[in-house]
Design goal:
This protein has 144 residues and is mostly helical. It has helices at residues 2-15, 26-38, 43-86, 101-129.
Length: 144
């Protein structure tokens, strides 16, 4: 029975990452709190807690970097469009001619990374619930 309880707690540590969709930094704070309160109970919970926290910090960093590049593409595209409007010849129309590709390309990349994050959290939760160890890919080990 104790093993089943550990599996459920490890499942909850991983699945608590979805709290980030309800309040800011919830994907980091919630697993961190759950891990800190349960890490002394077993090495299984300690390992899963570290993995969940490292994964969420890593992916938050990745999303921040992608979002920062998203903002730079957005302002670059806006300034290019405004420059064209400034030199507007009323005989011709203003066309974007693919200038917004960087903007939409980065936005879609952020969406794909978010979908990967959701899939990995679900996989890790199911593995933890089955009592298996799981290592997230693309994770920087902040906590060892």
């Amino acid at each position: 029975m104790r093993n089943n309880n550990e599996n459920t707690n490890a499942f909850l540590i991983h699945i608590s990452s979805f709290a980030g969709y309800f309040f800011p930094f919830g994907s980091i704070i919630t697993p961190l709190i759950l891990w800190q309160t349960q890490k002394d109970r077993s090495s299984f919970l300690d390992e899963h807690g570290k993995e969940a926290v490292n994964f969420n910090v890593s992916f938050s960093l990745y999303i921040f970097i992608l979002s920062a590049s998203f903002v730079s593409f957005f302002f670059g595209d806006i300034f290019r469009v405004l420059n064209r409007i400034d030199h507007l010849d009323f005989g011709h129309s203003v066309s974007f001619s693919g200038d917004l590709f960087g903007f939409f390309g980065i936005a879609s990349l952020v969406g794909v990374v978010t979908l990967i994050k959701i899939a990995l959290i679900i996989i890790a939760s199911m593995k933890a619930n089955n009592g298996e160890h799981y290592k997230y890919p693309f994770t920087i080990k902040f906590i060892k």
